[in-house]
Amino acid sequence: MKRICVEYVVPGMKLAKSVKGLDGSELFSKDTVLTEKEKEVLIDAGIDYVYIEGSSEAEEKRLMEILAQEYVFKFFMYVNPDSKVFSELYKIVVALVINSLNKGWEPPCEEELRAKNVERMKDLFFKDMGSPQDIIKHELSLASFPDVYFKLKQVLKSPTSSAKEIADTVSADVALSTKLLKLVNSPLFALTQKVDSIERAVSLVGEEELSTLALGITAIRYFKDIPPELINMDVFWRHSLSCAVFAKLIASQLQGINQEMMFTAGLLHDVGKLILFKNMPYSSVEALIFARENMVPVVEAEECVLGFTHTTISNLIMKNWDFPPSLIDIVGHHHEPYDATNKKEAIVLQLADNMANAVAIASGGTFVIPGMEDEVFYELGLEIEKLKPIVLKHIKVLQDLVAAIL
Amino acid sequence: MGTMSLGKLGLRKKIPNLSREEFKELTDFVYEKTGIAIPERRKYLVENKLGKRVLELKMNSFSDYIKYLKFSPQKESEFKKLCELITINETSFFRDIKQLTMFKNTILPEILEKKKQQGKKTIRIWSAGCSSGEEPYTLSMILHEALKVSIIGWDIKITANDISPSVLFRAKKGLYNDHSLRTTPDNMKSKYFIKEATGYRVHPKVQKLVSFQLINLNDDLAVKRIPPSDIIFCRNVIIYFDDEMKKKVLNHFYNNLMDHGYLFLGYSESIHRLTKLFKPVFKPGGIVYQKN
User: What is the domain-level CATH number for residue A28?
Assistant: First the structure.
């Protein structure tokens, strides 16, 4: 017996319990085999869940596989149905969802996937009456980026900087150094020996690389104060970290791409969204609702609702924070990698973002996969067969990393 | 992972291919008939959504489907089906409560006062793009709240229209589930809804003020037949139109509104780039546009 949302009923499923209407009267008795017709009545009646079973175990398994396919397909509605890359991702995700279902996971109902309206939040300005620059100006007047990053920049700039000086600067920030050590000791980095000091980490990972990682982790701290009713920050950073891990894993399969840079780019790829949530809360939620209703990616919904997107905001705020130009370029172009100076890196990030959205479907992810063209993917020179092992590795390392740095 | 064989599984679920030319022909047709502009970047979405319908009709290509849509004896009913697939019907009672509160506390009293002075106790409201009826019924409830028993002395009509027959069918039925009531305050729920086995039924006195019509905002003649309004609500509709169609619809609204009448738009629908026909009036809770 399984509990599922009415909208996921597959014709042929049998009621394991009777269904009662709002006023307590019985709508359908136990053992009713559901067809499209009964499903419609249940939906119209506003019944949320039903308990179902198959006529046999094999039949139940078959029905659950159909459910998994239809559930996952909805998230792939925006992508090219002929894409080899996304067909492969689709297969991987269906398998993940079946796996989750077997472990007792309940796919969230439409209603749970929809963003909730927020009524009290006030935006900085009404549509078309302000610009992204106004948002940045307002944001910068509220808070400044954590100090440690700017200190690190100073040290890196000086021609006489040493690993020890960098280590000292980072170590002064205890929370940051703890997280950095956990990060470099995770299986994602696959270092052969345990690293127990920042100084050692600097010498193993590199000065620039460690500073870049420090930048990513520091950024998380900056966004502590966003109201939880607007956006679930755990889910947000989980997606960002998931994207970071994918970006690094994909980069590790390719030549000449800075893996640490890609990790931080993944971690920061959606910071623009957070700035939007802080300054344009009502519109941001409207954009999320629009995205769900229309089955379009959030970035397209932002364009419709706000008239600009989070990537513009990311770009501006990172410039103001004086982040490394290549990082700004990659993050700012993860939806249009062709316009990036660091084109290959931006493609890696776009793929990582798609993959992070895809694997999240099996644990309640909300938004449609934004997609990318196969020709763009092929520019990486990565084989499609590599996607599955990357996903498996990702699943292995993500949970520990969430515990370590979020 | 990996126990089942998913080898044959693919994204293209037997649906035919939608070529660039077919996509253009289809979206041109939709635009001409409805004013809804579907951008090029949604080609795959259209393909995936409509592909299912093409399969249902046992057709082999989108070209066959487009011919069917344009020339077959079933073209009218198929066009309605198409509208259901491409329009969004998602709404709820009391959506954007800040704006509705502003309507109730500032705009409505002003209009009621003016009407009393003129000795004409009539109110005409147009809910343009009413979907499954939540908005016009909400407005009816707000009028009941504002006028209380004295509502008997008023002649009130709320004209509500949409292009999708199935949502209008639901609207006329007036039976809703929890989901439609998710933004409804509890006291409104108990006052204006009757709980039944299959949902919440809108109270007949709320229904009485509202009349529904199947109208396409791109149909000039049909739009001209809508009675002149004191207030127009058109929320989250013009966001689907391109600038040209937006201007056209705003002109319709201008012509329909009585002097100094008010237009309410969705939160993220700005028109000040498009027309000078309306004056934005800033109130706590949002912007309302007044006929100049």
Answer: 3.90.105.10
